[in-house]
Structure formats: C-alpha cells, structure tokens
Amino acid sequence: MTPTRETFGNIPQSSQWAFYILAVVSTGVFAYGVWRRYQLWRQGQPVGWRELGITALRNMPTLLRRRPRPAAPAAAEIDAPPTLTHLSNQMELKAAIGPGVKRVLVDGLGQQRVKGRGAAGRAHIALFAGFMLLLLGTTLLELDHIAGWISKNLQFHHGTYYVVYEFVLDIAGLFFLLGCGYFLWRRTRRPASVGHRGSDWFVLGTFIAIGVTGYVIEALRIVWQQPHGIAAQCSPVGLWLSQAFAGLGEPGARQWHLAAWWAHALLIFGFFAAIPFTRLFHFIAGPLNLFLSRPAMGQLQPVTMEEVERTGRVGVNDIRQFTFQQLLSLDACMECGRCEDACPAFATGKPLSPKRVVQDLKHLMQDTLGAGPTAAAPRALHGETIAAETLWACTTCSACVDICPVRIDQLRLILDLRRHLANEGGLSGTAATTLRRMQSAANPWGLPASERAAWRPVATPPPAPAAAAEPASSR
User: Fold this and answer.
1) Could you tell me the CATH number of the domain that includes residue 407?
2) Residue 25 belongs to what H/E stretch?
3) SS3 for 4?
4) Which residues contact 297 (CB under 8 A, 6 or more apart)?
5) Interval 9-50: pLDDT, tens
C-alpha cells in the first residue's frame, strides 16, 4: 500500500469550514496590524532609492523582456542588441534590488549575522530552521489539498515524497522545540542585555504548545490509523509518542485527535494574528529592513546646503524627520542586546545603550505618530526621550551597526540627533571643550603650536640585537 494520509482525516466538514473562516479572520487581523505599522513608517521622510526600487519591481517584466527579432532574414538568428536606455534600466534594477535580495537571503534566511553568540545563536538557528521547515511543510500540504479539488491525479502527498516529508517535518519539530526550550530557560536567567516583556512568555508558551500539540496529533493519528512499515517509521517522534495513547483505542483516539487538532489550529491562528503586536514582528520588519538598508560603514550621510535651504534644519528634532527606512528599522529591533554588549561606551559606564536608544525612539514613534487627535502631547524628542549626554557618549565606532543581525543603523540615528544639537549650539561636556580647543589652538588638547613636538613622548629606539656568534663548525 502506498504510504500516505488524508489531509483532513478525522476532521468533519463543518470543522473544515470553520478552520478556513478562522484562517481568514486571523489573516485579516495580521494584515491590519502590519498596515498600522506601515502607517507609522510612511510618516517619515521619503528616500529616493526606495521609489527607485519600487519602480524597478513594477517595471521588471518590461526591463527583462527580450526585444523582438528583426524582420530581416539576415538577422533572424540574432537578438537585436539592447539600447543604451535598456542597459541603463537593467543596471538601475540590479543596483536597487540585487544587494537587498542578497542581504535577505544571506543574513535573513541564511542567518549569517545570528552566528557567533554561542548557544543563543545556535538555538536561534535551530528554532528558525525548524519553524521555516514546518511552515513550508504546512504550505505544501495545503497545496496538495487544493490540487485534490481540481483532480486527484494532481495530488503529490504520497509515496516516497510522503515518507521524506513526514521524516523531515518530524525532525524539524524537534529542532523547533529544542530552540524554544533553550530560550525559555534563558528567559528565566534574565540576562541584562536582553529585553524582557510579559508578552515574551506568551510567545514562547504558544510556540511550545504548537510544537507539542503537533506531535500529539501525529501520535493519535497513528493510534487510530494503525499505519505499518515505513508509513509509521517515517514519523519516529509521533510513533514513539503514540505508545502513551495506545490504550485509548480507535474511538477514544479519534475523539482526542479532533480536540488536539482544534487546539493546534487555534494556537496557530492566535500566533499568526499576534505577530504585528508582539516582538515577533521582527519576522516582518527584519527582512524588510535588510532589503531596504544601505550599509555604509565608516561613512557619514552628507548634508548639502540645498537640503538645508529646502528644509530649514540640520539633523533631526522631530520623529517625523527620520526617513521611512529609519522608522521601519525601529520595528525590526528584537532587543537581543548584541549592540549593547558590543558598545564600548556602555561597557565603560557611559549613559549610552544603542538598544535603549532604538527602543525609546520606537516608543516615541508609537506615541507620536500613532496617537489620535485627542491624545496628550507626546514627549519631546530631545531631552525627554533621548538625553544629550546619551548622544555625546557615542564614540562612532560602528560596533553596534556591525553586529546587529538585521542591520539597524543605530549610529546614523544618533548622528542625526547630534547634528541637530550641534546646529542649535547644544554642545556640552568634553565635546564642547574639544571643539573650543580645535577652534582656538587647532588641536583637541589646547596646546600651543610651539609645543607641537612635545605633544607626544619621544620614543627611545630599542638597542640593536647583538650579532649571533658564528658556530665553530661553520668556520
């Protein structure tokens, strides 16, 4: 007998209809949550390269379409060479999309920037890989079910494919639960650099419940279906767990299978609907930020006189003056604390935490841009939200930018805020002292030019090494 199983086995038709209705409701809540966040981002300043990327995506079929062959017989076998405009459009398309797609594939799907943090990095990769495989498996199962509506001959969930599918998803579920278990244990340890929210327990609890109920469904199906040979062995975890339910018999197994199936479905719908309202939103904002970000390590964003004349400002003194991509990047932060761990200013006790800067700006974005017309006046960006001492504590080393898994540019956020302070004469402390010394003495120490040679100690050259004695045997 060909190994396979029915997609909605033991599920009444009424439950199937209710399943799809709840799926639509869950998707609607998810879409509404994403739309709400987008409404916040779009209040930021537009950036030209974003429009270029969107335009390139819209025009991709036209840009990539091959030119028609000339009617002349002599050129019938050769495509007409592309025009200069066509080549320019293709170069714009590649420049706008290529690097972003690569970052999504390498840093997002490949988790390249998650590596290097010991057990936490490995656990995140295990959780992510398990989740993506389970998501892919669920999608393929639904495609097979839809194909069956058209023709039974189009269904592919049987035979060797079914065996490989069941085994891979069984192992993927283990990786998923192991990753969740590690982060649940880590949450109880409460490392200082990691953000802590009450919703994190809901997220981890939902993840673990989804994984466990998935295995329970598989085990109960094995009890009442009684598959043999490879059809049962391809689900090793479900087969092992089915021994705990063997005493239920077929009627009891079917009854509990339906209950577990509904619990599993409701957990998934609740998880999906909650994504835009929890830390899980980095599932969406993270890849978007990877695609839209323009990493430029060691380079400052130039400020032109034309821009100053047009806007009448230097830097940022209002949350709306950040760009669309910068506001998006605030939602991409999952508070992993890597930037804080890498920050030398934070390590030396300075009043700066890159993670806190991003989170404070995110909360201000929500309070300011998401507030209704009758809401109270939001906090001021400078002073009340981000203190000047915090901004001037940054050494601009870019360690936070270099280590962020989703390429949030904390440094540019800080520099945009600092530029406003500098333009308004809001310098204080060592920054103001250094600039005054540079203005008066052309050096940050305020020393006179006549003592230039004394600015550094004279290094005494080390003595020349003594010549090694020549071995007697060589004479």
Assistant:
1) 1.10.1060
2) helix 13-41
3) strand
4) 398, 401, 402
5) 899 999 999 999 999 999 999 999 999 999 999 999 886 544
